[in-house]
């Protein structure tokens, strides 16, 4: 007998994240997150599975935070990043040098937490992973060299003065001192002046050599890293190393990321782009003569990102292969070369799907077997094998493999069954897309229904309008514990791809540029009315919630309407002028609204706090204590402003969380708070 998902079931989830296909395409390595109830920790383990589906995945590691698996060129070794206890061989070497030296103390924070380093399994010899790096500030991205005996690794390299400053900050709670414009970043905390370089690391000896001209910088580096990528080689040379860097005059004052290449000995550094793009995700052609990468407009985030290809064998010119496609390259997955074509995941009308890009033809959508009721959450391609992570609202999230040459009509092979045991006797929601007319536009929404609900012969249910963040993002049918939990409690969940969302083209997305609020609010309300008019939702039992930009939109909704019985604004921004300079997004604010002292009217017009006197909807407000994207002071300001008027309000702050909730117990607590709040103001409970 099936039953609804309960909050305790959260701890039994297995969620795949990073994946990497082996060079020949026969195997795939992937990371899966699981939850340790006893220690209240998220554990990220490394698995390997054959891409023909002949065997179940094999767990290689139980590292607490394994990430970024990468195969050596011959497929015999598998490297990954992890913060684990120091390798015994390195620990002995340290002790031999000087057990009490300062160097022995470096590489850890004051609480002795290990820094991320690069490790590798020798899959032919077997045994445990071997630590390859021992950078005092940890490793921040890597790739294998073409010979498989070296790696390129990005790592911070402080000077003596910087090292002393960091030690004072970490061990003695010393003051933050900075002259950086981008002075903090969510998930990173306070930023400093330490430069990140590329290092070439010998696999056998662990010897490192810094490439002095290969360094990073800029406001976007915390998000993109240097993304080193070492080219294949035919054996006549050592190849070249691609990386990202911002070397403009004011790198903290823009979102430029340029693409460079450098010789492995550190010489001959070349710039491939013209400081007019935010370049990310470089991927070499197997011949080593071309680089595919994703490029976006550093001044206009609403413009769809595109696939670019740079010819590094000639004049290093780069061109867009996206043409007039008008669909953004999705944030999920790598680029993959299939012969001379590039495959990429794209956002396409509320769905992440695959598209094929060519030099001399328009992009083509492919992999029709996916359908429109499940979405891609990760993608990689090597050899002739493409592997995707497909998320299905009813079936969960799993890996599938297909022949890259026949993707259009492929019948994918399922490689994992990560949550089958959990979901076998649990209700999961049916999903339906529907459209409404709003502001002269057709706006699409996705509805999730309870197990005992027939949308064609409905009896009205309570509704949760769950609003996506971004705003340049989109809702696709996906497996979500949250949505399954809500539908298990009898709610219909409606997720609206309001104007401003990506995946519907540039014109649709750009409609909110510089004027946040009115269109999103109108579209969400139209979708809710659409659900009510279809008989899906009880007119008096509608609730609204959203995280990040979804929280911002919830603030608009309760200030501009009385539609909802209660709302929950999570981790949002409500006073844009006071957010400027206290969050990590000053470049974004300027790109959208200009500077606050030059356009105070624009900032105020789009700030829901300006209309907070109109709020009479009971409001739950949540925040992360270390959230530098949407600082907790914003949530406090909204909460106090609502509470001051005598409107029921509640504030929940998660002290150590940034712009997400990673702690399992807190993730469960969040859902408890939301459910209790909506129950409290539900007319029938």
Automatic annotation (TrEMBL):
Keywords assigned: Hydrolase, Protease, Serine protease
Residue spans of biased composition, Low complexity class: 63-74
Residue ranges occupied by any Peptidase S9 prolyl oligopeptidase catalytic domain in the UniProt entry: 478-680
InterPro entries for the chain: 6-blade_b-propeller_TolB-like, AB_hydrolase_fold, Peptidase_S9_cat, WD40
Region described as Disordered: spans on this chain: 41-74, 92-116, 213-236
UniProt keyword annotation of Protease present: yes
One MF annotation (Gene Ontology) recorded for this entry: peptidase activity
Keyword Cytoplasm in record: no
Compositional bias per record (Acidic residues), positions renumbered to this chain: 96-112
Full protein name: Prolyl oligopeptidase family serine peptidase
